Amino acid sequence: MAGHYPPPRPAPPYGPPAYGPPPQYRYVPARRPPRRSAGGTIAGIFGGLTAVVVLGILGFSLFGGEGGIGTHVRSAEPRTASRSTATGNKLYATGALTPVRCVLPRLVPGPVSMRRFMNVLSDCLDASWSRQFKKAGMRFDTPNRVFWQTPGSSPCGSYPAPGASAFYCPANNTMYVGLTNVVATSGGEPLSHYAVFARVIAHEYGHHVQDRAGILLYGDAEMEKGDTATRTEASRRIELQAQCFAGTFLSSERATLPMTQAQYTAMIIDVRGRGDERLPPDQRDHGSGRHYAGWVIAGFKGRDLSVCNTWTVPPSDVS
């Protein structure tokens, strides 16, 4: 984002299970707890369906074709962004992300391992998106990182918040992720399913990309228009685009971050279980499970950033 925001009134969090809910922040990503039973199944969404059938429901094949987880603050100075900043951003014309040959350390139990994993992954994201912005002829500053183990506070609110393990704060361009919370809110995923956790970081990083590209500024303006429908739709377009950006990054690094079918399926089931379709209309600011997962898949399979333009698709594609 291009500017610092001081928090307005409390509002629902902004972000997926990743940009999701710190209660008083709309533009701070924190993850909603996955809708799973104690046994780790996604309640009421998948029932007894197998992972393969689940992906079939989404309308995508596993590895067919190409092979193979706020309230924001306003700027002190009045700033505006035109609709074209979101709909026709120069980033969309830069093609696929250039691989940076990211190699992540193996995850083992404990915050030390998770911190190292997150730092290496964030370094890869810094390199990847810096190159992409350079291709577009746009300035890019990497985000700050706070990978926390104990409670604290940010310009966007305190943490931890109920059900929240990660968020991006535009006020200080910082990603906040709980080292143990990100595992605790994953519904018991084994650490070997690294993509479940990598997607969270890549999603939060996606919000920083939107911030730097000016897209977030336009989305913020839409969300300030007052009516619930406009606010929640703008929020969903932002959240689902961050999902797509996460998918494109993970896809671009497939040579050095290979995913087994089981790891890919675990990631998709995880995001599918984080949909907000069961919430009241005024709280549906992240997208249904189908779309929350579908936009990750769109980025992963499409690779080209043009597929991540959530601002020109019909409302039915971001419901």
UniProtKB/TrEMBL annotation:
InterPro entries: Uncharacterised_pept_Zn_put. The chain crosses the membrane at residues 41-63. Residues 1-33 are annotated as: Disordered. It is found in: Membrane. Residues 1-24 have a biased composition (Pro residues). It is a single-pass membrane protein. Its main location: membrane. It holds the Pfam family Zn_peptidase. The keyword Methyltransferase does not apply. It comes from the Bacteria. Keywords: Membrane, Transmembrane, Transmembrane helix. This is Neutral zinc metallopeptidase. The lineage of its organism: Bacteria, Bacillati, Actinomycetota, Actinomycetes, Streptosporangiales.
